[in-house]
Specification:
Layout: H1 13-16, E1 23-24, E2 31-32, E3 36-38, H2 43-55, E4 60-63, E5 78-81, E6 88-92, E7 97-101, H3 106-115, E8 118-119, H4 131-136, E9 153-159, E10 165-169, H5 184-190, E11 199-206, E12 208-209, E13 212-221, H6 222-227, H7 229-235, E14 238-243, E15 249-258, H8 267-290, H9 296-304, E16 310-315, H10 316-320, E17 328-336, H11 340-353, E18 362-367, E19 382-390, H12 396-407, E20 412-413, H13 423-426, H14 433-443, H15 452-458
Parallel strand pairs: 3-5, 4-5
Antiparallel strand pairs: 1-2, 6-7, 7-11, 8-12, 9-10, 9-11, 13-15, 13-16, 14-15, 14-18, 17-19, 17-20, 18-19
Helix pairs in contact: 11-12
Length: 460
């Protein structure tokens, strides 16, 4: 647990004040007007800035790309924009370990790794988040045996409240126990911490040799998908599906590694399908039917008839990520793997029975357990179920009702997506909650890194 040497505190916050500023997240549902919004030029300046802020009794929050739907990045005091702390820092090709700045956007990271002949073993379907933000909220992809993003992190450089940098790394001995000082807990806490322990200035990734994926999108009857859910997840490296409420046909997506050469969609086909049809026309359609909720069931059934099979072979990161410009609100929960199909069925029944005006698809994925202290999949294989509602449409009452179903399974929310939990309701769902609390008390006893959201979900 080495620390970088400390330096004299010379940073003058007064010279860096940005004046009145408003920060808004990607979805447009969260915004704040911090007292100061500062973009440190590099890791050294970041450390000095944090130390000075702590001495002055300031509260510090960090903004990545703003892709969280929660208030995780909001601040009325000091908000740090870490977008300049980005790019590849170190590469060890034999081991596949690659160190990058915490503000590196996943899309840029994927291209940089590809140029090195490397790749992430698993990714989510959005690549606009920063690497630090994505792991801090427990971002994941899909695959019964494929790790989420936090589990692909070998080390973290964490700027603590005193401005020093803790270099947290996995133990070389996998059988090493917790230790009296709790040092082995630090990385497991820092990987998924919602920004509550410090600022992630760099991460070391466990990459794999670059690979191609064969992606097949295929409509299937929902009854078959739910009945064969375990077989489908076992037969494919990455399996997920989407289902529109009020319909009986699911769009399944299977991704498997292949030695076949890339056969990507043409530029015009990508533009027509992704930009024009799925996003531009899709957005217009959602806005229109949102004004007349009674037509949603009929429209959904009509639209499902146009689902068709499609396939592509491409480098892995282009098969994982989807182009997405439609703004929406989202709630996503991880329930125990074995209850995934049952929970989804109950959600769909509730939407139909209550005639909820939800027109966007529900997404279902599986993710293996990890060992991070407050990860949504800590200690248990899980099924993720994600609910969406178009931006501008009412979502809270429907998400609250659906959340009760997830609660009945001890569901754990994605930390960057909507939920209505508190520290009191969450603590019993995480076996190592108290261990995380001890790490937080140790690394940030004065609560420099807190805001309303962090206080709500982790406590004071």
């Amino acid at each position: 647990m080495p620390r970088s040497p400390s330096r004299p505190l010379t940073y003058d916050l007064r010279q860096q004040q940005s004046g009145p500023a408003t920060w808004t997240n990607w979805a447009g549902n969260q915004s704040c007007s911090p007292r100061d919004l500062i973009r440190p030029a590099g890791r050294a300046e970041l450390s000095e800035l944090v130390a000075t802020a702590t001495q002055a009794g300031r509260k510090v929050a960090v903004a990545g790309s703003g892709h969280s739907f929660t208030g995780a990045a909001l601040s009325d005091d000091l908000l740090l924009d870490v977008s300049s702390i980005a790019g590849v820092i170190e590469v060890d090709l034999p081991s596949g370990l690659v160190k990058v700045g915490g503000g590196t956007v996943l899309a840029d990271l994927n291209r940089a790794l590809d140029s090195l002949g490397l790749a992430m073993a698993n990714l989510g379907d959005i690549d606009s988040q920063t690497i630090a933000g994505s792991i801090s909220t427990g971002t994941h992809g899909t695959g019964a045996a494929r790790p989420n993003l936090p589990a692909q992190i070998a080390a973290i450089d964490l700027v603590t409240a005193d401005g020093e940098v803790l270099e947290l790394a996995e133990s070389p001995d996998p059988d090493t126990g917790p230790g009296d000082d709790g040092s082995s807990d630090l990385l497991r806490a820092a990987r998924v911490a919602i920004g509550s322990l410090g600022v992630i200035s760099a991460v070391t990734l466990k990459t794999v040799p670059a690979f191609n994926l064969h992606r097949v999108d295929e409509p299937m009857p929902l009854d078959r998908v739910l009945a064969d859910f375990d077989e489908l997840t076992a037969a494919n490296e990455h399996f997920e599906f989407f289902i529109f409420p009020y319909t009986d046909t699911a769009l399944t997506i299977c991704r498997n590694s292949t030695v076949r050469q890339p056969a990507p969609r043409g530029r015009f086909e990508r533009y027509l399908g992704d930009v024009v049809i799925e996003n531009a026309l899709g957005d217009l359609a959602l806005r229109a039917i949102g004004k007349v909720p009674s037509v949603i069931p009929r429209t959904a059934r009509f639209s499902s008839r146009f689902m068709s099979q499609a396939e592509q072979i491409d480098v892995s990161h282009r098969c994982f990520a989807n182009y997405r410009t439609i703004r929406f609100n989202e709630m996503e929960y991880a329930v125990p793997r074995e209850f995934g199909a049952e929970a989804l069925g109950r959600v769909l029944d509730l939407i139909r029975e209550e005639r909820m005006p939800l027109a966007m698809p529900i997404e279902c994925r599986v993710v293996p357990a990890d060992d991070n202290l407050i990860s949504p999949v800590s200690g248990r294989d899980s099924t993720y179920i994600a609910i969406h509602q178009h931006a501008g449409q009412e979502w809270q009452p429907y998400f609250r009702e659906i959340e009760r179903i997830f609660d009945s399974y001890g569901g754990r929310p994605h930390w960057g997506k909507h939920h209505f939990q508190t520290a009191e309701t969450l603590a019993p769902r995480y076996p190592e909650w108290d261990r995380f609390a001890k790490v937080r008390d140790r690394l940030d006893p004065t609560r420099t890194f807190t805001n309303e959201y962090v206080r709500t979900v982790l406590g004071d």
